[in-house]
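INTERNAL AUDIT FORM
Audit reference: QA-55
Scope: verify that the stored structure record matches its stored sequence.
Auditor: D.O.
Record contents follow.
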Amino acid sequence: MPSITLCLPIYNAERFLSEAIRSIRAQTFEDFEVIAVLDGCTDRSEEILIAEKDERFRVVKKERNEGVVAASNLVIGMAVTPFCGRMDADDVMHPRRLERQVTFLADHPDVDVVGTWFDYIDEQGHSVGGAFEFPATHEDIKNGFRVRNSMGGSSVLFRSERMRAIGGYTDQDPYAEDLNLWLKCLANDFRLANIPEVLMHYRVHENQLSKRNQAETWAMTNLAYKRYGRQIWGDDAPVFELGAPIHRRIMKKVKRIVTGKG
């Protein structure tokens, strides 16, 4: 049995899928399997996957698109390995990503989820920005979430049993699934960490879901903090009103400062 199961959700990813798969196959840590979920694809993704994969890849084909949350939870449920992680079909992994992460989790048995820093690449794979430097320690990550997402969704490796115990990703907020999961983890006393190295290259392109659904992402972010904030921070939980009129956000902030909860 391998040590890692890597979830690879694929939906009409023909432009970047070959590069993503090749970066997986190039890992210095080779004791892994990939469960690739063809999520109702209507392009050449299946053809490319079959041509590029090796014997470590298992393929699940869905007839209709159900989204990254359903695909990820399917893989979490199927995984029999100690560790499970995710890889997006348009991103690129550094060759030592899995090696560094599995070593970290072995050396830190108290940590449940470990992510990494990432940088940005364009549609041609060229670097278009420096490192996105997430906080490294659990306490700094927890504090960081008071302001913004402090874990990179496609960079993480986590303990499979722990993630199954809380039900994995939630399908309630499809445009903020990563943020939702990390807040859910914090609410369930998971310990989080980030390796302060660029071990993922995050692709920036026009068809990204986050760009197409900004208003929905804002709304789902607000709901995620409303759902889990008090469980994590108690009465001092931050209040997010992304997308709200500026005067309403200002008045909300003033109220929290006056009441001592800002």
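Auditor finding: record pair retrieved intact. The mean pLDDT is 90.
Action required: none
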